[in-house]
Every structure is written in structure tokens, then in C-alpha cells.
Amino acid sequence: MKLDSLLALLNEETIETWFDLGLFLDRFREEQEYPAIQFDGTYDDFKESLRTGGVAFLTFHYMVDGVTIEADKYASLFRRNVPGIAVHYIAGEINTKTIPFINKEYKQKVIPELAGFDDWELYKDLYSTKLERGSSVYNELIKRLWSQTLVIVEKLGAYIEEQGINLLYAINVCSNPGNVAFALATVLLSEMMKIPVISNNHDFYWEGGMSASDRKKEGSRTGPRDFFFTNSHLGEVFSIIEMLYPWQSRSWINVNINRAQSEHLVRTRGHNPANVMEIGTAVDTSHYTKSDKRKNINTFLQLEKAFSGYRKQLISYSV
Questions:
Q1: Which residues pair with 256 in a beta bridge?
Q2: Burial per residue of 281-292, b for 16 or more beta-carbon CB atoms within 10 angstroms, e otherwise
């Protein structure tokens, strides 16, 4: 499906309540014709289609952090296995300090609406406010969420279509709900435009996160991701997060960093084992075998920025 047709289809939907969105997603999933996404040709034909179309690495931000380092390794592997493949880095922000970590040949695209966590304008309303069914915040939040989703579908979809991208590599987009509109838009674009997705999950919102009622039952201490469960008492709200994080589809592969995460998706979340696998973190020895005093100093400066969140002081958290 072309982007214009997708936008026309989505604009016909009436999404004014959380229940509307839940019913839409249920219907959307049921109506997908998955056999149509199968590739017709040999593996070499598939590699050639990847080379000419390219792969897009999607995430919230590219900073001096683990995501940027890992993305560089993933992109290098694609280049090694599919020589000449076009690589695109797409995010809500690409910090200038990431220049040493992003190959100059890779294309970069900043879409501000993709920014996540504190930089996503709905973040505090969704996770710092205990919503009450029927309240003004509850009613307005879903309308703003759907509006943002349509904006992202249009902007991200236009770039994907313009560049001919035919594989999306989403890093943490559908594992931690730092921007629900981004996750929802990625799902809609991939399924309707028939673009396969590798969803790379470094960590999940339930790792160190739990609702207050479940904490009380278990008698466990507060976790660092409990805030994601602030509105888990509202099924129509929290079910959206449960459905999207991570998305389950025949055209999506969920790639995790450890076996425990994969087993959780299969045994607890009911994902198809054929679409769940691992890719562990590793050090690229071709980049990091040699060092000198200047490089060591720069490394410590980069660590300082990463640990301080680009502030003047380091931040510590009790766990």
C-alpha cells in the first residue's frame, strides 16, 4: 500500500476514545493478509532487493550511548553481508557528539516527533498522572496520541517511500514505551506498506517494572520501571501498551539480548518461537584493539557525558 492510501485509510478512522483505539488495533491485526508479504525469489534476490532499497535504523535518539554503539555494529554487519546496502539512521534527535560513531556514508534523518521518554510530550501525562476514566486528561490524551501517530506515519512514511527503504531495524522502539505514538506508527507503516521489521530489544518495560498491586502481593520493593504501570488499572489504556510492546507479527522478528527475554516472550507473551531470537552485545575488535592516551581521555569524557545525561553533574540512582 502506498503512503497516500494509508493516510486516507487512517484519516477515515474515528479514534476518540481508548476503546476506539483498542478495537481498531484488534481489527487491524485480524485483517492482515500475511502471506502477501512473503518474498518471491531466491535468497540472493532478497539480498539484492535489500541492497537497492536499504535498511533504516529507528530509535528515539542517537547520543553517546549504548544504542549508538550497538547500531554501528549492526550497520557494519549489514554492510559486510550485503555490500553496498544503503543505511539510514532515523531518530528524534541525532546529537552532534555522535559523529565519531556514525559512518559518514550513512544517511541521517531527524524527525522530532520520534523523540522518546522525557522528550516525548505525552510522557508525563501517561506515566506521571494517574488517569481517571472520563477525566479531561484521560479523554484528551487519546486524541493527542492518535494525532501524533498520524503525523509520524506521514513524516516517517514519506521518507521511507522516498528512499525506497524495504527493511526497518527498530532499536527499543517497541520494548520500552518511551513514545507510544512512534511504536504505533511503526506498526501501521510496516504492516500496511509490507515492510518487514527487526525489532531489537535491549530491555523491556517489565524488567524492573510492576504495578503497585502486584508489588504488594509479592511483597517486593519498588522497581526503577514501576512508573510505566501507573495506569495499568485502566485496561483500555494499558492493553495498548501490552499489545505494542513488543508487537507480534509474522513480518516482525523480535531480537533480544539474552535468552531470558526470549523465553519470556514465548512462554508468557505467547510469541511464535520462529520469530524470536537473540543477538548478544559484543565489542568490535577491529575498532577497539588499539588505543592511546588521547583516545583514553576522550573515552572518559564520553562516559562522563553518558552518565551525566549531558548535565554538569553525574546522576546516581538507588536500586
A1: 201, 278
A2: eeeeeeeeeeee
DSSP string, 296-313: HHHHHHHHHHHHHTTSSS
Q: How many CB atoms lie within 10 A of CB 67?
A: 20
- Taking the C-alpha atoms of 119, 122, 124 and 127 in order, what is their torsion angle to the nearest 10 degrees? -120
What fold, for 3-285? Answer: Rossmann fold (3.40.50)
Q: What is the pLDDT of residues 269-288, one digit of tens each?
A: 999 999 999 987 766 666 66
Domains of the chain by residue range:
3-285
**What is the distance between the alpha carbons of residues 127 and 101, in angstroms, rounded to a whole number?**
32
pTM above 0.85, yes or no: yes
Interval 22-51: pLDDT, tens: 999 999 888 877 555 567 888 888 889 888
- Which triple of cell numbers denotes residue 288? 577497539
Q: How many residues does the chain have?
A: 319
